[in-house]
Amino acid sequence: MPAAPGRVLLLVPQPFFQWRGSPIRVGFSALALGQLGYEVDLLVMPFGEDRDIPGVTLHRARNILGARNLSIGPSLAKAVLDVPLFLKARALAGRHPYAVVHGVEEAGALAPWVARRCGAKVVYEKHSDP
Fold this sequence. Notes:
The chain is α/β, with parallel strands linked by helices. 33% of the residues lie in helices and 20% in strands. It is globular and about 40 Å long.
């Protein structure tokens, strides 16, 4: 029996799950990675519905603002909430031997810093370009 392909940290600076573009896309990416045999840690903003995806563990960053949601597009609130997202990602990278840190949207800028902690490769994914 072949060995499992490894563990992936999917770093997403958006609410998950919400019925809108990027969260839908992220859900399918996580599902595909899980179906391929990867262990996936999906780290998202502190908003959205929990979804049970086989092979995927959902993690949420702390909500240091006490906000109830994030609007689509760039915002000061999103930039502030990127800090606990980054800190939680670094903590996860200290506990798990990730093969890949996959950063979506602006988390692509955080992914190399997280990957360096655990010697992982980096994937950057840009969904849209406002």
